[in-house]
């Protein structure tokens, strides 16, 4: 039998089951007082998504502070990224078209 040189690989990683917690910038703090950053990359329609996400986060009533930052241009780096990282425990970077 002749084998072809094609090999199909699965992109699915093999991981052991279990819950892992991501490290945060504010280790040791409870849920109250955490800040979540929303980074708008200035592409069309991303503001609709982030606004809905902001409303949902605030509606949960967990006491999260939501900090929204908009990049001046989608292709440019965010000038406020360091300040956002210092203020927030988590940052969601949204991209849309």
What keywords describe this structure?
97 residues; alpha/beta; three-stranded parallel β-sheet; 22% helix
| Number of separate helices | 2
Largest beta-sheet details: 3 strands, parallel
User: How much β-strand is present in the residues?
Assistant: 15-25%
Which H/E pattern describes the elements? EHEHE
Shape: extended
Task: Give the CA-CA distance, first to last residue.
Answer: 49 Å
Total count of strands: 3
Task: Give the helix/strand class.
Answer: alpha/beta
Spatial strand sequence of the major β-sheet? 2-1-3
Radius of gyration, in Å, reads: 19 Å
- Enumerate the spans where pLDDT stays under 50 for 5 or more consecutive residues: 24-30
Indicate the percent of residues in helices.
Answer: 10-25%
Mean pLDDT: 80
Task: Describe the 3D structure.
This protein is an alpha/beta fold and 97 residues long. The chain has a domain at 35-94. It is 22% helix and 18% strand. The protein has a 3-stranded parallel beta sheet with strand order 2-1-3, with helices on both faces. Helix 1 links the parallel strand 1 and strand 2. The longest helix is centred in the middle third of the chain and has 14 residues, at 46-59. The model is unreliable at 24-30 (pLDDT under 50).
């Amino acid at each position: 039998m002749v084998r072809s040189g094609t090999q199909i690989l699965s992109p699915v990683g093999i991981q052991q089951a279990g819950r892992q917690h991501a490290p945060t910038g504010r280790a040791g703090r409870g849920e109250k007082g955490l800040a979540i950053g929303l980074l708008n990359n200035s592409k069309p329609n991303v503001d609709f998504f982030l606004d809905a996400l902001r409303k949902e986060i605030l509606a949960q009533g967990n006491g999260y502070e939501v900090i929204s930052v908009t990049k001046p241009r989608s292709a440019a780096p965010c000038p406020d990224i360091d300040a956002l990282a210092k203020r927030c425990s988590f940052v969601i970077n949204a991209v849309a078209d």
